[in-house]
Amino acid sequence: MIGALKSASKTIVASPERQEEASGDLEVVRLVQAGDVAAFDRLIVKYRSRVHAVIYNLTSNREDASDLAQDAFIKAFQSIHRFQGQSSFFTWLYRIAVNSTLSHLRKNRLRSFFSLEKISENEPVAREVVAALTDKGGAERDAFVRELQDKLNEAMQKLSIKHRTVVTLFEIDGLSHEEIAEIMGCSVGTVRSRLHYAKRLLQAELQPYIRR
Amino acid sequence: MNSEETRPQITVEDLLRLKRAERPGPEFWAQFEQELRAKQLAAIVEKKPWWCGLPRVYVFALRHRLYLGSAGAAMLAAGVGLRVYTAPSASRPAPAMAYATRSSEAVAAAPQPAAAPASAPVAAQALPAPASEPMRVARAASRPASAPADPSLPLITMSEAPPAAPAYRFETLSRSMTVGLAAAQAAASQLARSLPGEDSAFDTRLVPASAPVAEPLAQMSSPAEERRSRLRDAEAFSAMAGSGNLVLPAGERRVSRLDDRADSDISRYNLTTGRDEIGVSIRF
Predict the structure, then answer these.
(1) Which has more pLDDT, B76 or B240?
(2) Which residue in A49, A126, A199 is closest to B21 by CB distance?
(3) Where are the beta strands (DSSP E) in chain A?
(4) How many other β-carbons are positioned within 10 Å of the β-carbon of residue A17?
(5) Does residue A212 belong to the interface with chain B, where contact is any CB pair within 8 Å?
(6) A126–B18: do the CB atoms touch at under 8 Å?
(7) CB proximity A44 to B under 8 Å
(8) In terms of pLDDT, which residue wins out, B24 or A193?
(9) Is residue A183 a contact partner of residue A91, using CB atoms and an 8 Å limit?
(10) Which of A195, A161, A164 is nearest to A178 (CA)?
(11) How far apart are CA A3 and CA B63, in angstroms?
């Protein structure tokens, strides 16, 4: 069951898909650069949920995530004439979003509170994980899921900003080490090391929910 | 079989995948799009700041002007340092080092160069030896015997040859300092000459190292001499006071007036002391 989850997560990192995606994005970007402002809406619709998810998982606050995602798209729109296609649009957009979020988190380091989205059990991933953790049903199950979500977000917020970013991009968004290194402007080795360290900390924090 | 054993493993990665399910509903995206549209329109009509029209180099310079200023100052300092440490050409005379190594007799007996121009400043004429001479003498021990040394200079022997870089730096520094000093002296002497009514005797010149050194003991006067001079002063003072020619300064006059008053006050009290009694008589 969980093995199926792992294989599903790895399909996101498929490189040919990314290349195809990048070439399609580049065409749209050229249109926007030529003056077709409406073409940018296609990029927004395509990436809004992923950009929002990354920011939300970094901040654990849905209002902040909404504002920061909008700001990231506005920044991308304002500086799209500087985009030269040396990297994929998706990497470029992610870099803008992550950098905005990191600067927001640094500014508001002392003021952080959770405002969490509800875990949708319509998602097959969530349903399978929750089923593996508990066999309760009804209200008890809902309470268990809420408690698990709180613990998970607490553990994430205990990580440093850089470690949290690596974990979010790799484990939740499914980017490759190389893509994360490009987005964060560091080496692949640094990404691996940060990921290893962050997972060790998370393992210690989430010990009651881990079963070997 | 226990139900706990049949349950699958749960890892950190599995738990983190739960967070993928934390997604907003469709109504959220409607609002998101509306807000984004408003922000996008605002960004389009927003008046750009004036520096957006400038090339990026200027924008960078404006944003980092503090760093650029610091960098400029550092470069200037480095340039000045380089200028100080730059070696002048070998033909330029740098005579000040001669004073550092020559004895006073050698300086007094130093021959004037015949080729020196008549209009050259005195400071430059008094120091004819090239800068390389003292260092050559200083390094005589490490040089081959064929190199001729100036006999008027004292030989400073060194047990080992000095390291190349510090010696070179010292030589270069001394040369540049000497050149600067000579130029300053020349400018000063020219300025002094150009002044109207200026006597050439006041021309600035370097104080030679052979100037007689005053012996401290010789400068001290003997106690008998001091006593004699004090007596002479007292005699002269009494003579001037007797003739009425003495004019004291105001402060001294005030002090003497106070002294006179004190004398008169004391004279009014007559203090007598006997064996068993003390008597005081006061005159009014």
Answers:
(1) B76
(2) A126
(3) none
(4) 11
(5) yes
(6) yes
(7) yes
(8) A193
(9) yes
(10) A195
(11) 52
Distance CA A211, CA B207 (A): 94
Helix (H, G, I), strand (E, B) or coil at B221: coil
Of the residues B6, B9, B14, B29, the best mutation for testing chain A's interface (the one with the most A CB atoms within 10 Å of its CB) is: B14
Show residues of chain B in contact with A119, CB under 8 Å. Answer: 18, 21-22
The Cβ-side half-sphere exposure at B14, using a 13 Å CA radius, reads 22
- B226 band by pLDDT with thresholds 50, 70 and 90: confident
Q: What is the pLDDT of residue A51?
A: 94
Nearest to B9 among A2, A130, A148 (CB): A2
What's the complex ipTM? 0.82
Residues 137-156 of A with CB under 8 A from B: 148-149, 152-153, 156
Question: Which residue carries 């007094």 as its tokens?
Answer: B108
Looking up tokens 């005379």 gives B93
- A70 interfaces chain B, CB cutoff of 8 Å: yes
Residue numbers in B near A68 (CB within 8 A): none
Q: Which amino acid is at B257?
A: R
The amino acid at A33: Q
Tell me whether residues B36 and A73 touch, CB distance under 8 A: yes
What are the tens digits of pLDDT across the range A135-192? Answer: 777 788 888 888 888 899 999 989 999 999 999 999 998 899 999 999 999 999 999 9
- Asked if A34 is an interface residue toward chain B (Cβ–Cβ < 8 A), one would say no
Looking at the complex, does the CB of residue A12 fall below 8 Å from at least one CB of chain B? no
List, for residues B138-183, the tens digit of each pLDDT value: 444 444 444 444 555 544 444 444 445 555 555 666 677 777 788 8
For residues B3-29, one letter each, b for 16 or more C-beta atoms within 10 angstroms of the residue's C-beta and e for the rest, the string is eeeeeeebbbbbbbbbbbbbbbeeeee
Cα separation, A136 vs A139, in Å, equals 9
